[in-house]
Write a structure and sequence with these properties.
mainly alpha
Length: 484
């Protein structure tokens, strides 16, 4: 039986299609130490990949290399050693081809050792530009970004620049990396805080595009990770590796809680404007209720406070679904966890205004709206103005509704809003202006009904559908029924 030589083990792991490329390296004058190296390789490849033939004994291999000569153990060991060295070189070359960053790293180290600073700087600047054109693809690329910045910095470094300035060089690198990593972290958090029915309902796939839009937070655990990675890359000390490891071990649970909270809380922020409007697979799912409860519990557990976005969505869901728990009980349970300034800014009053609008008590709704300064409602300031317009409409105070609509139009123009959100509000404005005009016209009933039908067709053609689409359709249909 042949022995289990190191050479056999190496060759057995070389794919068959790569053997021809390995032979090209063997015949290169730069690597060939002995002509017999090529002959030994050609003899061995016929047994690839198992190398279990009796013809692979030491005597048989020597006989193939030196026919009719007396066996010389040292000569065979030398040739086998040369071949092992070349195979190892081949594996390194292939690895460098598969990891261009590693190749560039070695090249730059050699350029620096040769003192070619100008040449090195030009190459580093080129690498930096290439990295800026795409997001990093993982931790290795993040560290490669760090190394590129570090080398550039050291070329220009002088004694007047301190470590805090050096750290600033890495902020764009880390932010680019987090734009790649953070959505993946949120997706994982979504899995951690969901239940099994999430996948069955098909909700999971619908949430991923929302997660991809979320900016990563500039504080909390995520930025702590950045500081640990930065210290590790700048210093490369054993204690920095240990510190990073300990950080993850001791903060893993808090990291999961924080990410779950961000995932659920941010998801509801993006959905808040749809929470009381048209039916939606996410909004109508029982999982949505579960998420709302999880969001509240997680946020209170991690921060000790409840964000207005999560509080609002839970309150709206209580109103919309007519759940057993009353709005009063909900507010009593969760309002104490709102930050003091947020509670004072009117979020609770706004929730009550929505409740009384749904109940048809428009005077009490207006009373609550009058207590609120819209700008202090943050993300709800647009819905506040839309609700005010609908209140005046329901009270048949069409002049006031028209005045508020004009203000609403200017308000949208002056705000910097995402394109899709702007379309949502503009479409609400377009329908409401025509609807108010219909109620104020003095034409015949037949003409009014015909215009209302055209308005309904126009509404259905809009994309995205306007804010409060269901309510708008209901009002148009009521108008048609009244005048046909």
């Amino acid at each position: 039986m042949p022995q289990n030589y190191k050479l056999f083990e190496l060759l057995s792991h070389i794919p068959k299609k790569e053997l021809a490329n390995l032979r090209k390296l063997l015949v290169s004058p730069f690597f060939v130490r002995h002509q017999k190296t090529i002959e030994l390789f050609d003899y061995l490849v016929q047994f690839h990949p198992h190398f279990s033939s009796p013809e692979l004994s030491r005597q048989s291999m020597y006989e193939a290399l030196h026919p009719n000569k007396q066996f010389n153990s040292q000569q065979l060991r030398d040739v086998m050693s040369f071949l092992v060295e070349t195979v190892e070189h081949f594996l390194v070359f292939r690895s460098l081809q598969e990891q261009p960053n590693e190749y560039t790293r070695l090249l730059y180290a050699k350029l620096a050792a040769l003192g070619m600073q100008s040449y090195l700087e030009k190459n580093l600047q080129k690498t930096k530009r290439e990295l800026q054109q795409e997001y990093p693809k993982g931790l290795n690329t993040l560290f490669y970004n760090f190394e590129t910045e570090t080398r550039l910095f050291r070329i220009k470094e002088d004694g007047s620049i301190n470590n805090s300035l050096r750290a600033k060089q890495y902020v764009p690198v880390f932010e680019a990396f987090m734009k790649w990593l953070y959505p993946k972290m949120l997706e994982q958090a979504l899995v951690l805080c969901s239940n099994n029915s999430l996948y069955e309902s098909g909700m999971f796939s619908q949430t991923i595009p929302l997660l991809q839009q979320m900016p990563f937070p500039k504080d909390g655990m995520v930025i702590e990770i950045y500081h640990k990675l930065l210290a590790l890359q700048l210093n490369k000390r054993a204690e920095d590796y240990a510190d990073l490891k300990d950080f993850f071990l001791h903060h893993q649970q808090q990291m999961e809680l924080e990410l779950q909270m961000l995932c659920v809380g941010k998801l509801f922020e993006y959905l808040n404007f749809a929470a009381i409007n048209t039916p939606h697979p996410i909004l109508n799912s029982d999982d949505y209720l579960l998420w709302k409860q999880i969001a509240r519990e997680l946020e209170i557990r991690v921060n000790g406070v409840l964000s207005p976005a999560v509080f609002y969505n839970g309150a709206v869901e209580t109103i919309r679904r007519n759940q057993q728990i009353s709005l009063s009980e909900y507010i009593k349970q969760y309002a104490p966890y709102l930050p003091a300034e947020k509670a004072q800014n009117g979020i609770v009053d706004y929730v009550w205004a929505i409740f009384f609008f749904k109940e048809g008590d428009y005077d009490r709704c207006l009373d609550y709206l009058s207590k609120i300064a819209p700008k202090k409602l943050d993300f709800l300031r647009f819905e506040y103005r839309a609700l005010l317009i609908r209140v005046f409409f329901e009270k048949r105070e069409f002049e006031l509704a028209a005045i508020q609509l004009d203000s609403f139009r200017h308000y949208i123009k002056d705000e910097e809003l995402p394109h899709e959100v702007v379309k949502l509000y503009w479409n609400f404005y377009r329908i409401m202006v025509r609807l108010v005009k219909l109620y104020r016209e003095t034409q015949s009933n037949k003409a009014k009904a015909q215009k209302a039908r055209k308005l309904l067709q126009y509404l259905h053609s809009l994309s995205p559908k306007p804010l409060t689409t269901d309510w708008l359709i209901k009002k148009i249909n009521q108008f048609i029924a009244l005048h046909q």
